[in-house]
Amino acid sequence: MHSPPLTSGDLAEMRPLREVFPDLADYAAKRKRGQRGPQKAQTKKPVTIRIDRDVLASYKATGPGWQSRMNDALKRAAKSL
C-alpha cells in the first residue's frame, strides 16, 4: 500500500522535524540512514563456525529467521550438556 501523493496544502502545513520532535531530530542527525541505534546490552557474540553444508541448507530452506532458529537449537543442546 502506498501513501497518497502530497497536495500543496499538505506541503504548506509541513514543519521541520527539529521543530516537531527536537529529541528525535538530534538522535536522527547522529545516525546514518539504515544504521541501527545503540544496543542496551550486547546480547550476542559474533563468531565464525563451520557447519556441514546439508545442515546449513536445511536451516536456510526454512526461510527468514533461520539464524535465530539455529541459535535456539544450539541453546537447547547446550542446556542438555
Characterization of the model:
The structure is a single chain. With 81 residues, the chain is mostly helical. The chain has one domain (8-33, 43-79). The protein is 51% helix and 0% strand. The chain contains 5 helices and no strands. The radius of gyration is 22 Å and the shape is elongated. The model has no long low-confidence stretch (mean pLDDT 87).
Short structural summary:
This protein is mainly α and 81 residues long. It is 51% helix and 0% strand.
- Overall mean pLDDT: 87
Major sheet: size, sense and barrel closure?
none
CA-atom Rg in angstroms: 22 Å
Q: Determine the N-to-C terminus distance.
A: 49 Å
Helix content: 40-55%
Looking at this protein, list some descriptive labels.
81 residues, mainly alpha, 0% strand, elongated
Produce the secondary structure layout.
Layout: H1 8-13, H2 17-20, H3 22-30, H4 53-60, H5 66-79
